[in-house]
Design goal:
The structure is a homodimer.
Chain A lengths: L1 E4 L12 E7 L4 E7 L4 E7 L3 E8 L2 E5 L2 E5 L3 E5 L5 E4 L6 E8 L5 E3 L7
Antiparallel strand pairs in A: 2-3, 3-10, 4-9, 4-11, 5-8, 5-10, 6-7, 6-9
């Protein structure tokens, strides 16, 4: 059985946001994103994949389309296929997100958003 | 922006396990499952969808294929497409799971497992 204790897999990378793969298939990417203060996932889009960010620890600013919001522990946000999206940790503490994308993205499109670059 | 505070959506149903939809698309089902002591999701399978259970609160016994394990908070388990799977709350406390399935299932197949029925 593929069973994981996510806490035991968490690692932060001082160089950039850490993506920690948990389960990957053609149908679904199931990852942890670990962001130190100041780290971000740049705004980008997936033409044919939905993504959901769920905050486990800490807080990030999430952008979907032209909107931004604070994502605090226990909150989830949907970035539907095609919508530019990204997250950044503007807080003074580490942030840990559970991130699901479905299906596996075939390609992603960079997006020069005004607020995350 | 579709953003949800999951805690505010949690409800338990004394009659049966509560499925609380958070985000639903053709690509992904993103739900909470709320199980009171003794409640269960019967063993079943989806031919073409992967499912991941993640324990937010409480503990459940999870079955995937012929194996069973205890799923405690912070742990995630993959039920790949085709594998019979189910959960049951054998504890004395409520259990709350974050459950993702991708893609939206076209049909599911009941499975009379020896351990969950």
């Amino acid at each position: 059985m593929e069973i994981r204790d996510l806490k035991s897999l968490v690692r932060y990378d001082p160089e950039k946001m850490a993506k920690i793969p948990i389960f990957h298939s053609e149908r679904m990417f199931y990852d942890l994103y670990a962001l130190l203060p100041g780290q971000a996932q740049k705004v980008h889009a997936h033409e044919s994949s939905d993504k959901v960010y769920y905050a486990l620890e800490g807080e990030v600013v999430v952008r979907v389309g032209e909107e931004e919001a604070l994502l605090a522990p226990g909150m989830a946000v949907l970035a539907p296929a095609g919508a530019p999206h990204g997250v950044r940790n503007e807080s003074a503490s580490p942030a840990l997100l559970l991130v699901v994308m479905a299906p596996k993205p075939r390609f992603s499109r960079g997006f020069q958003g005004p607020l995350l670059n």
